[in-house]
Each structure stands twice: as C-alpha cells, then as structure tokens.
Amino acid sequence: MNTGDLELRRVGVPSTALFTDQYELTMLQAALRAGTADRRSVFEVFTRRLPEGRRYGVVAGTGRVLEAVRNFRFDADLLAFLRDKDIVDGPTLDWLDSYRFSGDIWGYPEGEVYFPGSPILRVEGTFAECVLLETMILSILNHDSAIAAAASRMASAAGGRPLIEMGARRTHELAAVAASRAAYVGGFDTTSDLAAGFRYDIPTVGTSAHAFTLLHDSERDAFRAQVDSLGRGTTLLVDTYDVAEAVRTAVEIAGPELGAVRIDSGDLLLVAHRVRQQLDELGAVNTRIVVTSDLDEYAIASLAAAPVDAYGVGTQLVTGSGHPTCSMVYKIVARATSSDPKAPLHPVAKKSLGGKTSIGGRKWAARRLDAEGRAEAEVIGTGPVPPELLDQQLLVELVKGGEIAAPEPLDTVRERHIAARAGLPMSAVQLSRGEPVIPTEYM
Amino acid sequence: MNTGDLELRRVGVPSTALFTDQYELTMLQAALRAGTADRRSVFEVFTRRLPEGRRYGVVAGTGRVLEAVRNFRFDADLLAFLRDKDIVDGPTLDWLDSYRFSGDIWGYPEGEVYFPGSPILRVEGTFAECVLLETMILSILNHDSAIAAAASRMASAAGGRPLIEMGARRTHELAAVAASRAAYVGGFDTTSDLAAGFRYDIPTVGTSAHAFTLLHDSERDAFRAQVDSLGRGTTLLVDTYDVAEAVRTAVEIAGPELGAVRIDSGDLLLVAHRVRQQLDELGAVNTRIVVTSDLDEYAIASLAAAPVDAYGVGTQLVTGSGHPTCSMVYKIVARATSSDPKAPLHPVAKKSLGGKTSIGGRKWAARRLDAEGRAEAEVIGTGPVPPELLDQQLLVELVKGGEIAAPEPLDTVRERHIAARAGLPMSAVQLSRGEPVIPTEYM
C-alpha cells in the first residue's frame, strides 16, 4: 500500500488546484504579462443576503478550506493538462509550477454565525496567489455553510433530542461526507455515513432497512436474525407491514431490553403516540422511538410533543432545507498600485448597476452586545476599530505568511456554534421566516 | 509520483466501499449469521414521482455508478476502521475482505429519460452483494440525474444557443465535477471547471472577473492587459463600471475582432439589446454577447428574443433548479426462499401505509410509441414482454456476472439524451409545471 492510496481513501483534498475555474488562470496569465500580478491585494468572502427568511448563517467548511489551501499545488499532471489544452502560456505554467500560497488568511472561526456583509474570510497576498483560490474557497464555504445552517435550525427544533444524519444517498457521494461534517458542526449527533466516520471521526450509527425484513420469510424471522446478531440493543424497523403487529413481535423477540424501534412512514405524530403506548403496555418502557421519513426542521418541531427519542434526517439536511447553497462571493476589496510590497493599499469596488455592488476596503468585524451580553448588531468597518468593540472582534488569524494554523477538533467547532447561537436574540431560533436577527451596521 | 496520487488527481472513485450507510453492513452481518445472506435477490432503482411540475426525468450517473462498482473494495484500512469501531463482527470482516460484486446489473442507458416507476437500474445477485451497493448507487444517480434534468430544461430553453456550466463555486468541489458531467449529458456545451475538463474531457472555457478590472488602474488598462495576453478573441467583462463606456473601450482596444463581451448584472434583456446595438454601430458585428447572473431555465427562455449568443449558468444548474436531488430509492423486489442459486425468485414488497409501498417482482420496461413514432406511454411489467413492445425495451445489460461493460463516450450519452427527449410529445419541453408528459402503465 502506498501513501497516495491511503490519502485517497481518507477522502482528502490532495491536489485541490484542479477545483478551479479556468478564468482564474487566464486572469493570472494576463496579469503576469501586464506586470500587475504581484500587486498586493485583499479579497474578502461575504454574502449580500441570507437565504430568504433565514435569521442567521453558520460558517462551516473553514477547516476544509485550510486543508485545501495546503494541498493547492500544480504538479506535473495538472501542468501537462494545462499545456496540452493550451489553457495558459509557458511563463504562466512556470509560475504555477512553484505555486504555494504565501499570504495571510483571517476569518470568522468555524461554527460562528454570520450575517449579510460579514467578512467571513479575508485573503491577503499578491493578486496572483489570491485570485487562484477563489473557486475552491467558495465551493467549500458555500456548500458546507448551507448544510450547517439547515442543521442548526433542525437542532434548535429538536430541542436536545438526538439528530442522526442519514442523507448520503441524497447527494453526491463526497458532498455527503462534507455534509455530515457540516451537520455535526450545526448540532447533529451522529451519521449513518461510514466515510464521515472514517474521515472525521463522527460517531456512526445504523438501523435496518425494509429490504432486510423482505429478505426473510417473515417479519419475525427478520427481527430474530437482527437481534441474534446485533443484540437486544438494536433498532428494529417496524413499518414494513403492520406497525402494531411488528411492535408486538419486536418486544416478544428482544424483550423489554429492545433498544429502539424505527418508524419511516405514515403520520409520525399519531404513530409515535400509538407505538409509545404499546411499548409501555408491553413493558418496554426504555425502548426508544426513532423517526425518519422526509423530516425537515418544521416536521421536527411539529413532533416536539410526540414521544420521539431521536430524529433521522436525510434529504432536507443535505439539500440545505430549501437552500442548498449560500450566495457567498469572493471579491477584491483593496489592492496596491504597484508591485512594491510596501505600496499602500487602495480600496476598490464594483460600481455598476444591478444590485451587485460591494464595499471597498479591508474590513474588520465585531458583534456588539447589549447590556445583557446578547448580540445586538454585526458591526463592520474599514477604519480603526472603536475601543469598545476591540474585545468583540470576529476575525481570527488562520494563515500567516503561508503557515496554516493547526486544525481544530470538530467538537470545538460544534461547541463554538452552540455558544454563538445562544448569544443571539431569542428570535434567532424561531423557524418562521424573518429578517436577519441582528442588523449589519457599517462604520 | 505514484499511481495512487495520479488516480487521486483524476478525481476518481477508488475505494467507493466507504460511501456506504452503516446499516448496509449490519444488515449483512445479521443475514450472514441467519444464513439468508446468499439468497438470490433483485433490487431496483426507481422513483415514485418526478419533482413537482416536471415533465420527465433524465438518467445520469450510470457511467459513474459502473466505475464505482468496479472500485467497491474493502481494503486493509477500511477493514481496520470497521474493526476498531466495532461496527461489524469478525466473520463479516472476513466476508468483506474478499468482496467483489459478481452479479448482474441492467439499467436504462445513461441519457435516457425516465418517468415515475421506471426501473432505472436493476441489480441482481445475492442479497449480501447487492445490499452493500445501495447508498453509493443512490448517491450518484440522485445527484447526477437532478443536475441533468435541470440542464436538459435549460438546453431546451436556450434553443440551440451554447450553454456554459459555471457552477463550481456554488456546490461541493467534487459534486461540481459530477455536475459538469451531468450538465454535459443534459445538453450543456462547455464548463468553466478545470477538474471537469481534466477528468471527463469536457471543453473548458473562461472569461474574466471583476477582480481583474479592479486590480488595474483603469478599465482600459485591464482590457489592454487581457487582450495583449489572451488575444482579440477573448471575452471582456463590461459591467464593472459603466457598460456603454466599457463597450466603447473594449472595441477601441480589441477592434471589431473582439471575441465577446460578458454582462453579469442588470436587466439582461435591456442591456443585451443596448450592447448589441452599440457593438454593431462600432462595427463589431461578430462580437458575441455572453450573459451570466443567476440564470435559470425561465430566465434563459425570457431572453430568447434578445441578442444573446451564449448563456453562463451557475447556481441554478448545480442545485438542480429547485430540485437538487431526485427521490430515487433502491428496493428489493424479489428474492429466493433459500440459498440455492437455482431457487425460484418470489416478488416482495413493503405493504405498510404511508404512501411508500412499492410493486414487487423483477421488471421490464418499454416505451410504447404512437403511429408517428412518438412516445405515448412508459409500460412496466413483471410478466412476459408483449411481442409488440419487444423492440421498445429500455433496459440494457451493464454488468454480467461481475463483468462491467466498457465505459461509453460522454458524447454518445449526450446524443442519446437529445434523441430521447426529441422522441417525447412536444409538451415535454414546456417549462410550465405539469404532469409527466407520458403516463406510466403497469402490465
């Protein structure tokens, strides 16, 4: 076995330079030839709006971005491809051959919440080294943050009951791994996806499918086979035929020690009540009820009063519950007027009509708190930070002169998100549509 | 350089066994112990409904599925993970160690259209070898088919004008590569994603970003830098400041040989007309107009009368234009009552309430044609195929006894889709919401 294979199986991001739009490279070529490629530049990632009706966003994917920056290299294979397809010229190929990002990256720590205009990531270096990272950075943050935002709403709706991520079959096989990670950041507890367990050490769980019951000559045979092999603590799927009959058989076979039953169809509120009553009558008072079946945050909330012990969520999680991507952009906000590394930076911004303007200048961001210590505004500025906001600044250093900070444990990120959400006004966790829960103010 | 690294950079699917829900493995363990794992079984992939309002679905990802089946192995690393986490027992690990799919797979050829109930893929072998593939097969087909369906609608709306896939930054970095592939199948012509060019040889293109204009001291400097380096045939982005001013400058610098201008904001219909008139007045009658900016199939259709030469589509393509996943499921439909390979197959189906029932039995499918040779029904049955439908059968052999058919060129798949869509009633390409364009009939 070689290291390349090992890395591959880990679903890592090795030569991430490939995940790049062609224009990043042709802009590089033109800038190299024009002598402007080395101008010191500042790019910022932000979003002009939250998805419609959402109260807050969740930063997720930062850890993956840092890993991807580390692996962003143009090796012989890639260079041969670019040469064969005549995508860029010889001098550009030479430049790419030795590419390593040597600049600085600051950003909101992963798990933090964000609002329209929040400078979620700030990338600083020469134009050339920064522009190349655009597509890859946006891919990761736009995907992962969309999933984490949905997960966070579902976690609020679940009110402490465990959430199982089961969406692998509903999205691209590698997007699924990132989705599991983002769901964990947003508050999910476990995943069914083995790749996510392997790659990120997220706890994995499994129940059983209808196919297993149908394979056997009777539901009784199937339940007995599962309990014999996996123990009484297993989760039996009880809705292949008749639910009441299945619950009776399940407890008969596993006894009151039966771990859980799963309900995957029907009116979950009604069925959960009936199953709980039946389990209790059979003495299986500790047997838990797991519900699945096209759940989203609203369905989860509607089951708050039902005797449900865990929710399994698939489709609506991995598709961001109606918002499968964020609208984060990566914009140049300042640049030098010469290649001199000491040349001052000038703010720049697109001026055209059409709602896509942006605000020039390298930004700081802080979350202003009210007297009770609760967030009351996202404050963003380009000048000096007011003294009273110095301790509430949001951007942290992630890469310094090309040196990438050590990866954070995912549990740290997950806890940070819980704390960040708890620091917002109470209406943040209302599921109903509304405006961002705190306003963005510019100084 | 080692082979593992090379493969990795090709964005292949090496040890796809990882992309699996845990319950596939625990069901395997229980079936092995119960002596039912070797029962011959038939699983089918189908969907109970199309996304709301859609007239047809597009099968995409089949080629990726076959590649993934080929690479579905449990090597030492994976087995160690499963052992360390105590996910399955020793006998199951031993079984997995030698796993190779040795059964048969039939399916709709990639690029074909499908309808509710269409048996898009049929997997046959022992229960054990078939059940393991569920998650991975569904991940690929659900994702890729969703993108291809959106692409197909956009291609119809574009009416022959070229479509550029630009969505990499709006979805997971590897989902983006699969999305480019699916978009090509659905009728897109090119992609901005270099990884898609590298991996699938899809033609890549690029324009320029606002950052490039803002890097330079004036728009004029930026345009000159781009034309000097990339030639007069390049595409200049004209909406950073004032569009009319930019178009004038662009033609002044590049001359009437200017390849194209890109408009990325504003009222595209109005701006395209103005820009066309201006270009013509400046003598740049062959300079093309490329529009981008949150296009979907409706926006594309609304620009049919505008002087637009190409559409660049991002977000709405890679998120399936409102339907980022399909609802395909993988269900056991028949199985033997013993491990004897010659034991007859019995149809099986879930019977519980809640709308999730399915139809048992191994199925054939055919598309019945009317007198003009146009599709009039999707006919699905479990008995003998009526003689008049023998030539209209849809399922083709993809894997025979574990031997996987040679990969198809993507252009073949793309042409198949164009032909399949052309064989549907005209209302198939209406963008308005409606029922599936042909009914599904069961025999």
From TrEMBL, chains A, B:
GO MF, one annotated term: nicotinamide phosphoribosyltransferase activity
Broad EC category: ligase
A GO biological process held by the record: NAD+ biosynthetic process via the salvage pathway
Alphabetic keyword roster: Glycosyltransferase, Ligase, Phosphoprotein, Pyridine nucleotide biosynthesis, Transferase
Modification comment: Transiently phosphorylated on a His residue during the reaction cycle. Phosphorylation strongly increases the affinity for substrates and increases the rate of nicotinate D-ribonucleotide production. Dephosphorylation regenerates the low-affinity form of the enzyme, leading to product release.
Boundaries of every Nicotinate phosphoribosyltransferase N-terminal domain copy: 18-142
Pfam family, one: NAPRTase_N
Keyword check for Cytoplasm: no
InterPro entries with a match to the protein in the record: Aldolase_TIM, NAPRTase_N, Nic_PRibTrfase-Fam, Nic_PRibTrfase_pncB, Nicotinate_pribotase-like_C
Descriptive protein name: Nicotinate phosphoribosyltransferase
Species, as recorded: Streptomyces corynorhini
